Protein backbone atom coordinates (compact mmCIF):
# COMPACT_ATOMS: atom_id res chain seq x y z
CA UNK A 1 0.00 0.00 0.00
CA UNK A 2 1.33 3.45 -0.91
CA UNK A 3 2.31 5.69 2.01
CA UNK A 4 -0.10 8.46 0.98
CA UNK A 5 -2.94 5.92 1.16
CA UNK A 6 -1.69 4.12 4.29
CA UNK A 7 -1.61 7.23 6.51
CA UNK A 8 -5.23 8.36 6.01
CA UNK A 9 -6.38 4.75 6.37
CA UNK A 10 -4.48 4.37 9.64
CA UNK A 11 -5.97 7.61 10.97
CA UNK A 12 -9.51 6.51 10.11
CA UNK A 13 -8.90 3.13 11.76
CA UNK A 14 -7.63 4.73 14.97
CA UNK A 15 -10.63 7.08 15.12
CA UNK A 16 -13.01 4.16 14.54
CA UNK A 17 -11.44 2.10 17.32
CA UNK A 18 -11.58 5.00 19.79
CA UNK A 19 -15.23 5.66 18.94
CA UNK A 20 -16.15 1.99 19.36
CA UNK A 21 -14.48 1.66 22.77
CA UNK A 22 -15.65 4.99 24.18
CA UNK A 23 -18.60 5.19 26.59
CA UNK A 24 -21.91 6.15 25.03
CA UNK A 25 -22.12 9.90 24.68
CA UNK A 26 -25.14 11.65 23.24
CA UNK A 27 -26.04 15.31 23.04
CA UNK A 28 -25.64 16.89 26.48
CA UNK A 29 -28.90 17.35 28.33
CA UNK A 30 -28.34 18.44 31.91
CA UNK A 31 -31.13 17.78 34.40
CA UNK A 32 -31.07 20.00 37.49
CA UNK A 33 -33.34 19.11 40.43
CA UNK A 34 -34.13 21.28 43.44
CA UNK A 35 -36.12 19.34 46.01
CA UNK A 36 -37.50 20.48 49.36
CA UNK A 37 -37.94 18.43 52.54
CA UNK A 38 -41.53 17.27 53.01
CA UNK A 39 -41.37 16.73 56.77
CA UNK A 40 -41.44 12.93 56.74
CA UNK A 41 -37.84 12.41 55.67
CA UNK A 42 -38.67 12.59 51.98
CA UNK A 43 -38.03 15.25 49.33
CA UNK A 44 -40.13 16.64 46.49
CA UNK A 45 -39.64 19.37 43.93
CA UNK A 46 -38.94 20.30 40.33
CA UNK A 47 -36.34 19.07 37.85
CA UNK A 48 -35.58 21.40 34.95
CA UNK A 49 -34.02 20.53 31.60
CA UNK A 50 -33.97 22.57 28.39
CA UNK A 51 -36.66 24.91 29.62
CA UNK A 52 -39.11 22.20 30.66
CA UNK A 53 -39.81 20.98 34.18
CA UNK A 54 -40.74 17.67 35.73
CA UNK A 55 -41.66 16.85 39.30
CA UNK A 56 -39.54 14.45 41.34
CA UNK A 57 -40.26 12.74 44.64
CA UNK A 58 -37.64 10.82 46.64
CA UNK A 59 -37.89 8.72 49.78
CA UNK A 60 -35.64 6.41 51.74
CA UNK A 61 -35.75 2.88 50.29
CA UNK A 62 -37.41 0.03 52.14
CA UNK A 63 -35.26 -3.07 52.27
CA UNK A 64 -32.60 -1.82 49.84
CA UNK A 65 -29.25 -1.41 51.56
CA UNK A 66 -27.43 -0.46 48.35
CA UNK A 67 -29.61 2.55 47.46
CA UNK A 68 -29.74 5.99 49.06
CA UNK A 69 -33.07 7.14 47.64
CA UNK A 70 -35.85 5.78 45.46
CA UNK A 71 -38.76 7.60 43.92
CA UNK A 72 -40.39 8.79 40.72
CA UNK A 73 -39.85 11.56 38.21
CA UNK A 74 -42.62 12.65 35.88
CA UNK A 75 -41.83 12.26 32.21
CA UNK A 76 -43.59 13.17 28.99
CA UNK A 77 -45.75 10.03 29.07
CA UNK A 78 -45.80 8.55 32.57
CA UNK A 79 -43.82 8.71 35.81
CA UNK A 80 -40.52 6.83 35.77
CA UNK A 81 -38.89 5.10 38.68
CA UNK A 82 -35.59 6.65 39.73
CA UNK A 83 -32.94 5.48 42.16
CA UNK A 84 -29.87 7.19 43.58
CA UNK A 85 -27.29 4.61 44.61
CA UNK A 86 -23.62 4.15 45.50
CA UNK A 87 -23.17 0.43 45.05
CA UNK A 88 -21.61 0.61 41.59
CA UNK A 89 -18.76 2.90 42.68
CA UNK A 90 -18.42 2.51 46.44
CA UNK A 91 -16.25 5.57 47.06
CA UNK A 92 -17.10 7.48 43.92
CA UNK A 93 -19.97 9.49 42.46
CA UNK A 94 -23.62 8.71 42.99
CA UNK A 95 -25.42 6.72 40.30
CA UNK A 96 -28.74 7.82 38.84
CA UNK A 97 -30.58 4.65 37.83
CA UNK A 98 -33.51 5.06 35.46
CA UNK A 99 -35.41 2.67 33.24
CA UNK A 100 -33.65 3.92 30.10
CA UNK A 101 -30.05 4.30 31.28
CA UNK A 102 -27.69 4.89 34.19
CA UNK A 103 -26.05 8.28 34.71
CA UNK A 104 -23.50 9.75 37.11
CA UNK A 105 -24.61 12.58 39.36
CA UNK A 106 -22.63 15.75 38.66
CA UNK A 107 -24.12 17.33 41.80
CA UNK A 108 -25.49 15.70 44.93
CA UNK A 109 -26.05 17.63 48.16
CA UNK A 110 -28.46 16.88 50.99
CA UNK A 111 -29.39 19.13 53.92
CA UNK A 112 -32.21 19.31 56.40
CA UNK A 113 -34.07 21.67 54.10
CA UNK A 114 -33.53 20.19 50.69
CA UNK A 115 -31.71 18.05 48.14
CA UNK A 116 -29.86 19.22 45.01
CA UNK A 117 -29.28 16.74 42.24
CA UNK A 118 -27.94 17.13 38.69
CA UNK A 119 -26.91 14.74 35.91
CA UNK A 120 -26.38 14.65 32.17
CA UNK A 121 -28.93 12.58 30.24
CA UNK A 122 -26.52 12.52 27.30
CA UNK A 123 -23.85 10.50 29.10
CA UNK A 124 -24.25 6.95 30.39
CA UNK A 125 -22.45 5.83 33.54
CA UNK A 126 -19.29 3.86 32.71
CA UNK A 127 -18.88 0.24 33.84
CA UNK A 128 -16.95 -0.82 36.92
CA UNK A 129 -14.98 -3.93 37.87
CA UNK A 130 -18.27 -5.51 38.94
CA UNK A 131 -19.48 -5.36 35.33
CA UNK A 132 -16.43 -7.25 34.13
CA UNK A 133 -17.15 -9.88 36.77
CA UNK A 134 -20.75 -10.14 35.54
CA UNK A 135 -19.75 -10.74 31.91
CA UNK A 136 -17.14 -13.32 32.87
CA UNK A 137 -19.61 -15.10 35.18
CA UNK A 138 -22.27 -15.20 32.45
CA UNK A 139 -19.75 -16.65 29.98
CA UNK A 140 -18.84 -19.38 32.48
CA UNK A 141 -22.52 -20.32 32.86
CA UNK A 142 -23.23 -20.41 29.12
CA UNK A 143 -20.29 -22.65 28.33
CA UNK A 144 -21.77 -25.52 26.29
CA UNK A 145 -24.53 -26.41 23.86
CA UNK A 146 -26.07 -28.67 26.52
CA UNK A 147 -26.97 -25.74 28.80
CA UNK A 148 -27.85 -23.21 26.10
CA UNK A 149 -31.54 -22.29 25.76
CA UNK A 150 -31.96 -21.46 22.06
CA UNK A 151 -35.60 -20.34 22.52
CA UNK A 152 -35.39 -17.45 24.95
CA UNK A 153 -38.64 -15.85 26.11
CA UNK A 154 -36.95 -13.59 28.73
CA UNK A 155 -38.64 -15.59 31.49
CA UNK A 156 -35.78 -16.97 33.55
CA UNK A 157 -38.02 -18.90 35.93
CA UNK A 158 -38.95 -21.61 33.42
CA UNK A 159 -35.52 -22.51 32.01
CA UNK A 160 -35.67 -26.19 33.10
CA UNK A 161 -31.94 -26.73 33.31
CA UNK A 162 -30.93 -24.58 30.34
CA UNK A 163 -30.12 -20.88 30.18
CA UNK A 164 -30.33 -18.21 27.49
CA UNK A 165 -27.96 -15.31 26.92
CA UNK A 166 -30.31 -12.89 28.65
CA UNK A 167 -30.89 -15.17 31.64
CA UNK A 168 -27.18 -15.93 32.02
CA UNK A 169 -26.51 -12.18 32.26
CA UNK A 170 -29.52 -11.58 34.53
CA UNK A 171 -28.45 -14.30 36.94
CA UNK A 172 -24.83 -13.16 36.94
CA UNK A 173 -25.96 -9.59 37.64
CA UNK A 174 -28.08 -10.72 40.60
CA UNK A 175 -25.23 -12.81 41.99
CA UNK A 176 -22.58 -10.10 41.69
CA UNK A 177 -24.69 -7.06 42.59
CA UNK A 178 -27.16 -8.66 44.97
CA UNK A 179 -30.14 -7.90 42.70
CA UNK A 180 -31.00 -7.59 39.05
CA UNK A 181 -30.84 -4.24 37.24
CA UNK A 182 -32.15 -4.09 33.66
CA UNK A 183 -29.73 -1.37 32.50
CA UNK A 184 -26.67 -2.62 34.35
CA UNK A 185 -23.61 -1.36 32.38
CA UNK A 186 -22.50 -4.96 31.81
CA UNK A 187 -25.72 -5.75 29.97
CA UNK A 188 -25.51 -2.48 28.07
CA UNK A 189 -21.99 -3.38 26.93
CA UNK A 190 -23.24 -6.72 25.59
CA UNK A 191 -26.19 -5.07 23.85
CA UNK A 192 -23.87 -2.57 22.13
CA UNK A 193 -21.57 -5.31 20.84
CA UNK A 194 -24.55 -7.12 19.32
CA UNK A 195 -25.76 -3.92 17.63
CA UNK A 196 -22.26 -3.31 16.25
CA UNK A 197 -21.20 -6.80 15.21
CA UNK A 198 -24.48 -8.52 14.34
CA UNK A 199 -27.08 -5.80 13.58
CA UNK A 200 -28.86 -8.06 11.06
CA UNK A 201 -29.76 -10.46 13.89
CA UNK A 202 -31.66 -7.84 15.91
CA UNK A 203 -35.44 -7.78 15.48
CA UNK A 204 -36.65 -6.22 18.71
CA UNK A 205 -34.92 -7.22 21.96
CA UNK A 206 -31.22 -7.41 21.17
CA UNK A 207 -30.29 -10.15 23.64
CA UNK A 208 -33.27 -12.34 22.84
CA UNK A 209 -33.10 -11.81 19.07
CA UNK A 210 -29.38 -12.60 18.93
CA UNK A 211 -29.83 -15.66 21.17
CA UNK A 212 -32.72 -17.09 19.13
CA UNK A 213 -31.35 -16.37 15.67
CA UNK A 214 -30.54 -19.72 13.95
CA UNK A 215 -27.32 -18.19 12.59
CA UNK A 216 -25.97 -17.59 16.10
CA UNK A 217 -23.48 -20.22 17.22
CA UNK A 218 -21.99 -20.87 20.63
CA UNK A 219 -18.74 -19.50 19.18
CA UNK A 220 -20.57 -16.24 18.41
CA UNK A 221 -21.82 -16.08 21.99
CA UNK A 222 -18.32 -16.64 23.35
CA UNK A 223 -16.94 -13.95 21.03
CA UNK A 224 -19.73 -11.62 22.17
CA UNK A 225 -18.73 -12.07 25.81
CA UNK A 226 -15.04 -11.55 24.97
CA UNK A 227 -15.69 -8.32 23.03
CA UNK A 228 -17.92 -6.98 25.81
CA UNK A 229 -15.29 -7.84 28.43
CA UNK A 230 -12.58 -6.10 26.38
CA UNK A 231 -14.79 -3.01 26.08
CA UNK A 232 -15.37 -2.93 29.83
CA UNK A 233 -11.65 -3.40 30.61
CA UNK A 234 -10.79 -0.54 28.31
CA UNK A 235 -13.23 1.80 30.06
CA UNK A 236 -12.32 0.94 33.65
CA UNK A 237 -8.60 1.26 32.91
Account of the 3D structure:
There is one protein chain. By secondary structure, this protein is an alpha+beta fold. 35% of the residues lie in helices and 24% in strands. The protein has 6 helices and 8 strands. Strand 1 and strand 2 form a beta hairpin. Mean pLDDT is 85; it is low at 1-23.
Features:
single chain, 237 residues, alpha+beta, 2 domains, eight-stranded antiparallel barrel, 6 helices, 8 strands, 35% helix, 24% strand, elongated, disordered N terminus
Q: Brief description of this entry?
A:
This protein has 6 helices and 8 strands; from the N terminus they run αββββββββααααα. It has 237 residues and is of the alpha+beta class.
Average pLDDT rating: 85
Treating each run of at least 4 consecutive H or I residues as one helix, how many helices?
6
* Main sheet record: 8 strands, antiparallel, barrel
pLDDT below 50 for ≥5 consecutive residues: which ranges?
Answer: 1-23
Count every beta strand, where a strand is a DSSP E run of 2 or more residues.
8
Measured between the Cα atoms of the first and last residue, the distance is: 34 Å
**Strand order across the largest sheet:** 1-2-3-4-5-6-7-8
Roughly how many Å is the radius of gyration?
Answer: 20 Å
Q: Which structural class best describes the helix and strand composition?
A: alpha+beta
Tally of domains: 2
Q: What is the helix fraction of residues, given as a range?
A: 25-40%
SSE order: HEEEEEEEEHHHHH
User: What is the approximate shape?
Assistant: elongated
Note the beta-strand portion.
Answer: 15-25%
Amino acid sequence: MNSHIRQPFAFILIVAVIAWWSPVRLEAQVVDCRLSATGDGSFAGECATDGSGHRMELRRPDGLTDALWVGTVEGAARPQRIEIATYQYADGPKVIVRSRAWHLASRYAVSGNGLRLSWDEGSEAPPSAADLEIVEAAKAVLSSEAVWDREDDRNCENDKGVVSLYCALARATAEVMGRYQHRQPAMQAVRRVIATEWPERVIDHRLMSFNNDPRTSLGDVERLFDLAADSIRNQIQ
